[in-house]
Structure formats: structure tokens, C-alpha cells
Amino acid sequence: MADTPNIAVLGAGVVGMTVAKLLQDELRHCNITIIADSFKDDTTSAVAAGIFRPGTSFMGPTDKATKKWINNSWYYWQEILKSSEAPQAGLMAFSSYIFSKTHYNVTRNHLIEDLVPIYRAVDKNELALCGDGWKYGSYFSTVKIGCERYLPWMERKFIEKGGKIVVGKIESFASLPEKYDLVFNCTGIGAKFLCNDHSLVPMRGQVIKVRAPWLKTAFYGDYDTYIIPGFDGIATLGGVRQYDSYNLNVCKYDAAAIMERCCDMLPALKKAEIVAHKVGLRPHRVPVRVEPELINGVKVVHCYGHGGYGVMCSPGTAMDAISMGLDLLKGNAKNKL
Ligand SMILES: Cc1cc2nc3c(=O)[nH]c(=O)nc-3n(C[C@H](O)[C@H](O)[C@H](O)COP(=O)(O)OP(=O)(O)OC[C@H]3O[C@@H](n4cnc5c(N)ncnc54)[C@H](O)[C@@H]3O)c2cc1C
């Protein structure tokens, strides 16, 4: 290895951008190149509402690792949130209600109840906020990461500090454009083909972006219903979770169902102007893959498979991936490969 390591990060979604930037902050003398075939608004990350609320099924290799990823991510976002750059970085704090007509357990979340400043059961008056029939509910404080701002902000900082960007599709680890001392694989659903990983499955999502500047609180209901405020008064309405679907087209039936469920919760949304319909494929894998591998002599650290929680959890997984990568560079990880 040369004195200045040559490192590639494959993927420019929220995971790749976060790995590249945190790595650049950690290693002052290194050449880092991000290689990807889509950037910013063209990634799955840009489709996400970006709320910090893991599903209770979100899973790393152990419960301890999962919790560490979530906690480290929360503190990373809090640091940005309290800086003057929070709005440019796409960080916003708000509170959320989660209601259910049928299941008490969906209103609880063991992964964040002890982490966020507020997580409490709602009272009778709050249960009536979104119409009749809601039996269970919780109220919690959280943050949102708007990738439409976070990705360009991170890319700008990365380039300012000497990072390189290459646009292109990688067909295999053997066909990388140069020789790299270390490669981070942050290709989201693309890893399915790059690594021939059959346990990585697309979980199709569809959302509607509407103009609702009056919305300051998020709401979750049954059947994947969510209403999330955002920057510039644009809220995200969702959603669907379709297992093993590769359909990237907007489905008008999904859109109608989403609109109906969201308007049932908040009738004021009926008048909101529709700005866009978006579709993305969540890279679903249990567990999320953060691990080193030697592939045809190339030192690779995988960081993919974050499912519906890759925006919120990207910093925590990036920190672990980087620590594995630094071990590989120092030659400390031979026994793990
Ligand atoms: C509707 C919807 C709502 C969501 N809501 C939330 C939410 O509220 N909170 C949350 O935390 N998460 C949410 N998610 C999940 C989140 O979007 C994903 O977990 C996250 O975007 C995954 O990030 P990524 O960087 O791994 O993948 P991506 O954003 O897909 O980025 C992958 C990158 O790899 C590149 N790439 C892939 N293959 C190759 C290749 N062979 N060669 C070169 N480049 C390649 C792509 O071009 C891209 O740059 C949501 C997702 C959807 C679809």
C-alpha cells in the first residue's frame, strides 16, 4: 500500500455519501473516490421521507450492534441539528404521533424509547386528533433528514476537501477503473447483482409529495400510512411496502390508496396541491450487511441492506464500516477474512 491510501466508495446514496465524508474526516491523508451511476435526486435515498424512526424489525448482526448503530446515528444527527448548517444539511426537528386502531404494540418502539427526548403514551384527547376509532397511540420527538438537501451538502463538502467523483456503473469488483487499497460497497439494492446476494430483496415504496406548509407534526396510522412534514412546506404522504417488487413506475392505484388513507387521518390534506409522485426500492436485508470481505484480492467492506431505515441509520453503520476498513488497511483484519 502507498503512503496515501487509494480508496473507492461505491454508491452515492445516503450510505455512500456518509461513509465517504466520515472517512475523509477520519483519514487526513488519503485519496477517496466516490463511484456511482446515480446521484442526489436520482437515488432511492432522495425518495425517502427520512424520518428517524426505525421499524422494530430493523436488525444488525446482534441486538447490541443494532442499538449501537441507532444511538450513534441519533447523536450524529443531533450534532448537525444544533449547528448553524442544519437547514442546508436537511436536518429538521419535530414531533410525531403514531396511532393504531388494532395493535397496541405498533405504537411502541424499544429501539428509540430510551433515546429520543420524549416518547410517551397519548391521552384521550390526543386519540381523537385524527378522527374516530383510534384505540392506541404514542407521541415522540424525533428528527428528519431531507436527502434532497443532505446529499448535495455532503457532496459539496466532500469535493471541497479534495474528494473525487466518478460517474459510472461497476459491473464487478474485478472491473474497477483503478487499483484501490480499500473499497466500500454502498450500492443499496445494486449490491444484489454486484454481490449476487439473494438475501437482498427490493421492498418497493411509493409516496406523494404535497404542498402543506401548515403541517408541523408527523402522523402514522395503520397499513403503512404516514404523513411527514418537510422543507419548503412539502410533506411526504405514504405509503406501501411491496416485497420483491422491482416496479419503478408510479402506480395510480397505490397513489389513490395512499391519498385516501392520509386524508382519512387529516382531512385538510384533501386540498393540498400534489407536487410529485415518487417510487423507490428499499434495499431490504436481514441483517443489514456491514462486514469485510476479500474479493479476488480486493479488500472490500460491505455496507448495504438498510431496508426502510437507511437514511436515519447511515451514520451508525458508516462508523462501523469505516472502523472495519481501517483495520483492513492496517492489516489487522486478516483473521476475519
Ligand atoms: C418510499 C420510501 C420511504 C422511505 N422512508 C425512509 C425514512 O423515513 N427513514 C429512513 O431512514 N429511510 C427511509 N427509506 C429507506 C431509505 O431510502 C434507504 O434505506 C436508503 O436510501 C438506502 O440508501 P443507500 O445509500 O444504501 O441506497 P441508494 O440511495 O439506492 O444509493 C445506492 C447508490 O449506489 C449506486 N449503485 C448501485 N449499484 C451500482 C453499481 N453497480 N455501480 C455503480 N453505482 C451503483 C447508485 O447509483 C446509488 O448512487 C425509505 C425508502 C423509500 C423507498
Order of helices and strands: EHEHHEEHEHEEHEEEEEHEEH
What would the principal axes of the Cα set say about the shape?
A: globular
Question: Proportion of β residues?
Answer: 25-35%
Q: Based on the structure given, which CATH architecture is correct? A: 3-Layer(aba) Sandwich
| Mean pLDDT across every amino acid position | 96
* Structural domain count: 1
List the helices and strands and how they pair.
Elements: E1 6-10, H1 14-26, E2 31-36, H2 63-81, H3 86-89, E3 91-100, E4 119-121, H4 124-127, E5 136-145, H5 147-160, E6 164-167, E7 182-185, H6 191-194, E8 201-211, E9 217-221, E10 225-228, E11 234-238, E12 242-243, H7 252-265, E13 273-295, E14 298-306, H8 310-330
Parallel strand pairs: 1-2, 1-7, 2-6, 3-9, 7-14
Antiparallel strand pairs: 3-5, 4-5, 8-11, 8-12, 8-13, 9-10, 10-11, 13-14
Helix pairs in contact: 1-5, 1-8, 2-8
The structure holds flavin-adenine dinucleotide.
InterPro entries: DAO, FAD-dep_OxRdtase
GO molecular function: D-amino-acid oxidase activity; FAD binding
Organism: Parnassius mnemosyne (clouded apollo)
Short description:
Belongs to the DAMOX/DASOX family. This protein has 337 residues and is of the alpha/beta class.
Q: What does this protein structure show overall?
A:
This is FAD dependent oxidoreductase domain-containing protein. GO terms for molecular function: D-amino-acid oxidase activity; FAD binding. The chain is of the alpha/beta class. The protein has a single domain, classed as 3-Layer(aba) Sandwich (Rossmann fold). 28% of the residues lie in helices and 30% in strands. It is built from 8 helices and 14 strands. Strands 1, 2, 3, 4, 5, 6, 7, 8, 9, 10, 11, 12, 13 and 14 form a 14-stranded mixed sheet that branches. Helix 1 runs parallel beside helix 5 and helix 2 packs across helix 8 (310-330). The longest helix has 21 residues, at 310-330. The radius of gyration is 20 Å and the shape is globular. The mean pLDDT is 96. It binds flavin-adenine dinucleotide (FAD). Flavin-adenine dinucleotide binds at residues 10-16, 35-38, 43-45, 47-51, 169-170, 186-190, 194, 205, 207, 238-239, 280, 282-283, 304, 306-312.
